[in-house]
Specification:
Elements (H helix, E strand, L loop, with lengths): L5 E15 L10 E10 L6 E11 L8 E13 L8 H25 L20 H12 L10
Amino acid sequence: MKPSPLELERHFFRRIHVDAQKAPVPEHENIFDCSIEYGKDLNNPRRFRLLLRLRLKGDSDERPAYLAEFEILGFFRVEDAWPEEKCEDLVAVNGPSLLFGAIREMLLNLTGRMEHGPVNLRTVSFSATPDPAAQKAAAKRLRKTARSPARKD
């Protein structure tokens, strides 16, 4: 095993909201919407910020046990030995995966103390995106305005 070239410097939740539903149908699972905003530090091309939004909902006819919304912001750094042209791809796949794992753990902890019992989100892969061109265009727009906070070493 070797260390990852991607370091999660820090992360925090900007939004946590979980509602237990009245009279849920146990076999109904949540559907989730996920969106990601990428930002690249204007002064250091190896530093990034990602905002992951996750919303758990049900179909119009379904009533899952919980409805929830999360926003988590993470700050990442890619090690100097990693090829610069591969930094964005590394962050685009592994960054959201790390933040999703933090949401997954938070949801499990919260619902473990709630009325309908714990919810454990399925694992997901961020390696294949439905429209890579649109995602890269959005990342380029964000890159123009995004800055990472000063690092405190």
